[in-house]
Amino acid sequence: MDRNRKILISILALLVLSSVIAIVDISLRIQKTQDTQFALAAPKFGPGIGLVRIEGPIEMSSGTSALGLKSGAEAIIQRLDDLEKNSSIKAVVIRINSPGGTVAASQEIYQKIWRLRKKNIPLVVSMADVAASGGYYVASACNHIMANYGTITGSIGVIAYSPNLKHLFEKLGIQMNVIKSGRFKDILSTHRDLAPEERVMIQEMIDSSYRKFLKDIALGRNINISDIEPIADGRVMNGETALKYKLIDGIGDFEDAVNKARELAGLSEDAPVYDDVTHPFQQLLMNMEGMFRGQTILKEGMDYNNLYKFEYRYLP
Fold it and tell me: What pTM, to 2 d.p., does this model score?
């Protein structure tokens, strides 16, 4: 009985702690909203700018929460769809703070942005801490890209990786029983070396995705592929260097990007910004849900679920 009571008390303490952390987080968000004219949760009216946020690793979908909210590329594309259908939206600012992510998810967001661009909806990117690899891929579809001097961007390239635990397995005396329908069915398995023909196959897929990356950047930036190739070796760079290589159009912060969007759309200086801000109570529930799934407000480490994906991602 005493043990059960201790377990119950521990669970209650965890719930209280989770609630306190979530409430503090929401309070900070609300305070931030009140301190800036650009993070507007309150409804506004009239022609204005739609804001889209791309934060963290780009994946097709991170699943649907208990609240029925989508996340990942699907949510970003849905947000772009909503803005496209809204007659009050005359331009879009895309705020990117992402190291990139999976190839397919990055490509889908790029294609959606490109379709909006062909409809003459001005699109301006505001790069935050990092907009590298797939983060830059997505940005290149827009009309105008702005970054801070210290923004980490570039990392143009493709990567696929998996750990080779063969020698560790041998040391521990672990053997894998594999029954497969074809010789390539367990490609990139962790318990054995990569066969030469498997390496060739994966390299071909990497090269194909890389060529697509270069082609789309050249299209979005309206430059030749030959101008991109010398720096498309996976290197990262800050905003100042990116401007030198014409990967971006200007140095500026979020406010500068919003003003540029207003300019391109022919809007007044006080045209509103329509942000996709979650209701505070909804955010509380999402934070608590995330904490019980082990996704706290602290940054996550390496995502081992992504070990077998082809990615446009910056991996320091």
Answer: 0.75
